[in-house]
Batch of 2 targets.
Target 1
Amino acid sequence: MSDTDAFEPVQNASAPSPAVGHSDTVVIMPETRPEWSRRNFIKGVIASGVTVSGAIYFGPALTRPQSLSAQGVERLITLNINGQTRRVDVLPGETLAMTLRYKLGLTGTKLGCDRAECGACTVLISDVNHYSCTLLTHRVGNREVTTVEGLEGANGQLHPVQQAFIDELSPQCGFCTPGQVMSAVALLRSNPNPTRDEARIAMAGNLCRCGAYDHYLNGVMRAAEETSNA
Ligand code: FES
Ligand code: FES
């Protein structure tokens, strides 16, 4: 009897089986009974491994008595966005970029790669530039978040960096521009008079698919010069 013969009847218990005896009586032949064999053993190990790995993957959702999505109070958090207190319902795995764009309507923050590679989603958190696409909103806490919308002056005037970018014709398609602006603002807040190389390094996390890097650098240096002379 082969290993295959030993296993197959278990799967086909309701299928016609070799039978002997009276027509009303079905007797399973010994060859069709499940038996321990090396093949059965290996299949059992594989099956239990799948069960364990599946439990790990689905475990949190399956084992919690109540899913997080049902715990509305836990999801409702307070954020400090652009100087305003905002109450928002945030999913456990939600990124700050998603919250800003799709819960708070702050679409100036762009989503490019959505995996910390392009810088389109850059915002300031306590004046430090961060990729908001890979930061969980629940990790922000009460720190101050600034988006490109938050740079607007009291009378609606542009931030000096924004004006300098316009003057230097930095944006081409403009998709990377909000992220470039936020990184430049973060740089000038920590280092108001950077060298061109310092600015180049500080802006290195912001990709520009249009290749307008020198235009953006010119804008950063112009903004630094104009704010230091103001
Ligand atoms: S969208 Fe966040 S780094 Fe690209
Ligand atoms: S201006 Fe087009 S991606 Fe930078």
Target 2
Amino acid sequence: MSMTTIRPLNPNQELSALKALLDAKDGVRLEQCLPAVADGEAFILVAIQADAVVGVGIVHTAARIDMGWDPQGGTLDFLQSGGAYVENIEVKRPLRSQGIGSLLLRTIEQEALRRGCMRIWLHTGDDNLGAQRFYARNGWQHKETLQVPWKPIGRLSLVYFKDLSA
Ligand SMILES: CC(C)(COP(=O)(O)OP(=O)(O)OC[C@H]1O[C@@H](n2cnc3c(N)ncnc32)[C@H](O)[C@@H]1OP(=O)(O)O)[C@@H](O)C(=O)NCCC(=O)NCCS
């Protein structure tokens, strides 16, 4: 495997490369998160191989109104109780299962803790068995399964968390 570096996104130079990695909806959402990043209330880490962006993690540490969190689903509770929330983590498809995601996730956890968050949370789809295995293997616990308002009825989401102070 080529060497992988994890570091903060440079939004001025890497935004279009990163959007190319994501689907259109996630690309729009990425741009919506940039004001929160600029204010120090979210962070975006990228995985870099040979100067190319090959993965991303988007993480929030504050319950900002401009992020549009729905009160149902738990995200506001996670953030208002001092936790961090992983909005997205993704590795470029051909480079998956080489450890990049785990390196990204570990660095996300360290950065969230550095910013004072003792717990970190996320949602993942009930059909995303690969992601569920990935989180469990990285020491995250499944808390509950629920219908979140931003997914179609019947498409359940699993809430995972990890205690960072342990
Ligand atoms: C979830 C995701 C980020 C994981 O990234 P990744 O780079 O594949 O993660 P890793 O390589 O660290 O781990 C994935 C698997 O590869 C295996 N693996 C890691 N390094 C390996 C290596 N060197 N050789 C072989 N297998 C390896 C791990 O054991 C792991 O197996 P498991 O998931 O069955 O336990 C990635 O699959 C992804 O982008 N998925 C699509 C987006 C998505 O669903 N994101 C989650 C939203 S909630």
